[in-house]
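Work Package 4 report. The design task specified in the project plan requires that, given a folded chain encoded as structure tokens, an amino acid be chosen for each position. We show below one input record used in the internal validation round.
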């Protein structure tokens, strides 16, 4: 049996990229995975099928994030799908991956990126607390840009800094329940969202590889394996931390 056997995990944005890899890895470790998607139902269904084919258990939930009431709607859908089951692991992965620079940033874009990347995880966790088992895990997907200056995506980086602060405070608040809370901060990852500028340009790929001390571009599985560790009992004494998963980028 897998080390997460008998546990239920929620992974937001689990239909593609890093979220897909996290959902697959947690399911491979034995968890039943509820993965959310905003628009790509076919992609979410494919992830569920691939998990089932490998002997795991998963189901997809439609969840538009970034609007008032989105967290309530998500958990109502979870309750309906599971018969009001408890949850053991919450992974806040869904997010907007870029933003304009300061000169080009509009108030509407600012509001949207903060709504999806900060407000949604905040209230997903708030509404999860009544359902989350003691000894559970909350894992927030942050970014290496929270420690490296990238003014060209200043609003995005600011959201990840806010998420890390949320992680720190939440770990202190939930410690008495034995619930650990950590952030995982990826660097440049080879996903379809990055394909336009990364895969199509050999020079961009070479430059991205050179940023990492390990000399390559990261994969979604590189991040998913770190999440799986934090979700396991092996990480029971790790909380309130930002775990760097950049491959030693910008050292």
């Amino acid at each position: 049996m897998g080390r997460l056997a008998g546990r239920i995990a929620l992974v937001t944005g689990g239909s593609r990229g890093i979220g897909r890899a996290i959902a697959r890895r947690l399911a491979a470790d034995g968890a039943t995975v509820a993965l959310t998607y905003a628009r790509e139902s076919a992609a979410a269904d494919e992830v569920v099928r691939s998990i089932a084919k490998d002997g795991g258990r998963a189901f997809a939930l439609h969840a538009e994030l970034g609007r008032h009431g989105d967290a309530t709607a998500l958990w109502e859908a979870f309750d309906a799908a599971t018969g009001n089951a408890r949850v053991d692991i919450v992974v806040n992965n869904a997010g907007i991956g870029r933003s304009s620079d300061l000169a080009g940033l509009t108030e509407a874009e600012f509001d949207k990126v903060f709504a999806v990347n900060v407000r949604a995880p905040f209230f997903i966790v708030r509404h999860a607390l009544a359902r989350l088992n003691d000894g559970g895990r909350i894992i927030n997907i942050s970014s290496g840009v929270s420690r490296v200056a990238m003014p060209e995506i200043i609003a995005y980086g600011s959201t990840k800094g806010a998420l890390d602060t949320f992680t720190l405070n939440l770990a202190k608040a939930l410690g008495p329940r034995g619930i650990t809370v950590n952030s995982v901060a990826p660097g440049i990852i080879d996903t379809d969202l990055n394909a336009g500028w990364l895969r199509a340009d050999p020079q961009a790929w070479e430059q991205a590889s050179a940023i990492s001390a390990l000399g390559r571009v990261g994969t979604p599985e590189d991040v998913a394996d770190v999440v799986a560790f934090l979700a396991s009992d092996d990480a029971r004494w790790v909380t309130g931390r930002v775990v760097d998963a950049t491959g030693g980028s910008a050292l």
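The chain has one domain: 8-245. Validation will be extended to a larger panel in the next phase.
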